[in-house]
Amino acid sequence: MRHVHIHVTGIVQGVGMRPFVYREAMAHGICGWVLNAGDGVHIEAHAPADALDAFVAALSEHAPAAARVEYVEVVDLAANGWDAANEQGFRIVASQDQTAHTTLVSPDIATCNDCLRELFDPADRRYHYPFINCTNCGPRFTIIRSLPYDRAATSMDCFPMCPRCAAEYADPLDRRFHAQPDACFDCGPHITWREAVNGDACGNSSATPAVGTTREASDAIIERCVELLASGGIVAIKGLGGFHLACDAANEQAVAELRRRKRRSNKPLAVMVRSLADAGRLCHIDDAERELLAGSIRPIVLLRRRAVCESNGGSPDAFALAPSVAHDLPELGVMLPYTPLQHLLLAAAEACGMHALVMTSGNLSEEPIETDDDLAWEHLVAAGIADALLGNDRAILSRYDDSVVRVVDGAIMPVRRARGYAPQPLPLPALDGAPSCVLACGPQQKATIALAREGTNGEAPCFVSQHIGDVENGGTFDAWNAARTRLEDLFDLAPAALACDVHPSYLSGQWAREQARKCNLPLVEVQHHHAHIASVMAEAIAAGQLTTDARVLGIAFDGTGAGADGTIWGGEFLVASLGGFERAAHLRTWALPGGAASVRDARRNAFALLSELGLLEHPGAARLLDSLDEQTRSVTATMIERGINSPRTSSMGRLFDAAAAILGICDKATYEGEPAIELEAAAWRALDNEIARFPDDNAGYFASGPSWLDGPYVLDQKALFEALLGGIEAGASADRLALDFHVAVARSSARIASEICVHEGIDTVALSGGVFMNRLLLQLLTRELKSMGLTVLVPHSVPVNDGCIAYGQAAVARTRLAQVAPQ
Amino acid sequence: MSHSVTDSTVLLGHGSGGQMMKRIIDEVFLDAFGSPELLEGNDAGVATLPASGRIAMSTDSFVVSPQFFPGGNIGRLAVCGTVNDVATSGANVRYLSCGFILEEGYPMDKLHQIVQTMAETAHEAGVSIITGDTKVVERGGADGVYINTAGVGEVPAGVALSGANCRPGDVILVSGTLGDHGIAIMSQREGLAFSSTIESDAAPLNHLIADVLSAAPDTRCFRDPTRGGLASTLNEFAQASGVAMEVDEDAVPVRPGVQAACEMLGYDVLQVANEGKMVAVVPAEQADAALSAMRAARYGENAAIIGRVLPLESGARPAVRVRTGWGSTRILDMLVGEQLPRIC
Ligand SMILES: [Fe+3]
Ligand SMILES: [Mg+2]
Ligand SMILES: [Zn+2]
Ligand SMILES: [Zn+2]
């Protein structure tokens, strides 16, 4: 007989681990107990040696689907330490809190098939219960107050279980054994309904909401909600990590009204459809996309639209979407229901002939999504954005946006990493001398934060928060603070060093500098584009594709980042390692009159670029100049000439904006990146409609300086824009020129990259930066680079946009601090 | 005044301490300023101490380029700037000193104009210029005219205004439209061709402050939002008082021409300099009285209540937020050097 202690770490909580352990113990005839603690699952087992070995092997081999067992540590205890006479059988003991909060919590999981079956089974006692779940599915991170994950430490603590639920919860052989959010109509949370009367939300705000305490009442609420949606109404609906604003995606009037009320004029909206089949009626779906859409995470997946590709209606069973859902963009954000309530809603909507609902984040423009019913009423309904509120009495303790992903060349590329992904740790290389815990404060926009702690087994886990947003906004800055303290508390981590962006006025950086001074902690300021490239490198190192000390050529094509020379970078070729970089090449700089003012009005950016290139007089620029009034032209010219609030930039994002404005494709950005996004859409149109293949001919590559040995290469975009203007003058279609522009940027960039790689003896290129959200450019450039024999790295666990910055900062800061630490 | 200018430009000799210096003092400065204290011709102007026993004092140097701009000139700025600084303490501003640093070759008639404006502005403010100084530097050693002024005022008994006095619940007022001065100067200096002419707002606000103080005696503090604009002023208040502040963007008075210019230039109007505006923080129950007093006063017709003081949430740092027209908020920071855009 052996008597052992087993410690299991990884994602082992909220995934049905203990019932699984119990069943395995039963199957192998093991005596003992299992418990959840802050640092994982602990087991004590007493059994013959053979049985024990089989049991231990099963722990990692047959673990539940949602679990991720990282480490099983077995320590022998004295065999006589087991009171065999009195301790027979196997039991699950109450959770223990321990100081080491190092275990991993499962993210929220979409409703499983077993629960779905019950949800729609009239004979089941949870028929139509909007909060049905089991150990294989349901809310997790959004309801956790503290670790270990136990009902008392969640927002389910105020719902005492009824006898029937309690019995399931206590039965080791039940699917709901220790399912912390287990509940039913009798004992659990209920949906609530409040409606603005005659459009007057304020007058009705004191009205007691309808509460779905019974199946009939609950069904009535859903019926009323769908009725309102079918009549063109807008409803704020509480989801897992926050509110959505929903409307009928086929009703142009409703969608336009939602846009008007939310002050979101052009930014594309995501839709929710009931099934993969329905998604297939809107978009092309490949296997990887199918898996993402219907998997347990259920992010918004950006898919290639059918309606656009197959103009004139497409296939007969295609759904018509309201044009203003995503205008003419080639991609559409689609998701499938992931909560029981969403399944009920979509089923009821279908019965009313609605096949797709717009499900956009429920927030005031620029602010974080609402999570609290009363505040949502105030900010969304009373403020006149939604007509009604479908809430519930289960509190959301952590705000989570929907994650957004896309598949490029068969592999996932995150666009927004939130629900279902964060804060699962991403690996960083373990380094001798690195601080015990680094807090990376992230950028200003698309902010995330990262906490990297020292690890075991050659890897250091880096907890990257969910997408937080633009911290310039008051509410988002609060959310940034909340996410930071939550990560620190939950994982019991106290930062020993800090990292932030070099930008002098990012709020996250200001906080970091102040905190470093106050607490006397080392602070590493990381250049924005180095962080971009480092995030890709860190991921590749963890995947064994690069060594820890590798050098790569990083191509950072981005919107804006503070450079090391006082200009704004964004079209950068960096010879980079994790610890440092050298700027090997960059775009020729030009002035950005008014800074952000020229980001909003791309025509002024274009004017400044052409002025820099000496091309304002070109006949092809006439349309652009005509679109600007006399005062704007004159003031802009003076600002450039005298350098008034006109920082110089080498940003590729701004170069795309300028091209969009020159081609007349998009003049102003009503949301971030709009001109560049429209430029890409135009290029796809050219591919779809005109030539259906990548063109081989094109004029106007970048010219580069004579030698870059004396300093960085300067890529001169003059020839490119001369060709563009020449095309306009010759009457070429804007779509075609947009495509040519993409090809020229890709080819020129690849050529310069290969020159640098040859000279530096580098064979790997890492791509990051918001400009690579452009799928066409990403594919073209990747293809070019690969054809030159170079290995191309793109990120698969963090976004290419600024969502990667905190992770990259953590990687750089750890490396630098390890380098300076006394060995 | 008479234009008995003997010399047409400023010469090095005007700073010599001799005949020429006496001439410029007599013909240019005494003629314009002519207070009894000054006319006594002593090295120091002697004035009577106030009964309250407390004085307020402030000094400022003015190096603005160009010296003449729509709405005023450097002389008006030099008087208003110091008068307003002293007045923010709640003091009755009484005396000014002024020191001139002149560049050799500066046109004498322009100097006359500047000095004349100073005299008029001092008269309007009800203050006496009681001592002064003149230096002349070689060509290129200065940009035309630099002026330093210092001001003294008596603080009435019981008045103790301070930026550290703001309390949650207090109300923030501003005495008029923001951004006029900064945009006027920049347009003039850089030759920006805005379709509407924007004028500087430079004005002495000591009477306005006195009126507000008598209508709202528990006023916490005043400050003139000069360089750094409203953003700096409110952040200073918030930090000194350990509170948060919220400004309603739509309530902030801004001239359409200034708004349009700021949009074009990429400036936040809340960070642009003013020279004739006063920010006041008053207890909520006296806000209406303070607003009426401001609006009734000269230069206060566009006064408005623009925000409020909020408690600081635990752990948060003192900060100023702007609530936009549609309910979202943004953090209003102090300007950090030359602005680098933050948006991607
Ligand atoms: Fe970036
Ligand atoms: Mg001053
Ligand atoms: Zn389930
Ligand atoms: Zn129950």
Automatic annotation (TrEMBL), chain A:
Record GO terms (molecular function): acylphosphatase activity; carboxyl- or carbamoyltransferase activity; double-stranded RNA binding; ligase activity; zinc ion binding
Leader sequence residues: none
Keyword Cell inner membrane: no
UniProt domain YrdC-like: residue ranges: 219-420
Gene3D superfamilies in UniProt: 3.30.110.120, 3.30.420.360, 3.30.420.40, 3.90.870.50
Active site: 18, 36
Pathway: Protein modification; [NiFe] hydrogenase maturation
Keywords per UniProt: Hydrolase, Ligase, Metal-binding, Transferase, Zinc, Zinc-finger
NCBIfam families: hypF
Protein name in UniProt: Carbamoyltransferase
Higher taxonomy: Bacteria, Bacillati, Actinomycetota, Coriobacteriia, Coriobacteriales
Gene expressing this chain: hypF
Automatic annotation (TrEMBL), chain B:
Annotated ranges, domain PurM-like C-terminal: 167-310
Annotated ranges, domain PurM-like N-terminal: 41-155
Any one Gene Ontology BP term: protein maturation
Gene3D superfamilies found in the cross-reference section: PurM-like C-terminal domain, PurM-like, N-terminal domain
A Pfam family this chain is assigned to: AIRS
Record family assignment: Belongs to the HypE family.
Protein name: Hydrogenase expression/formation protein HypE
Species classification: Bacteria, Bacillati, Actinomycetota, Coriobacteriia, Coriobacteriales
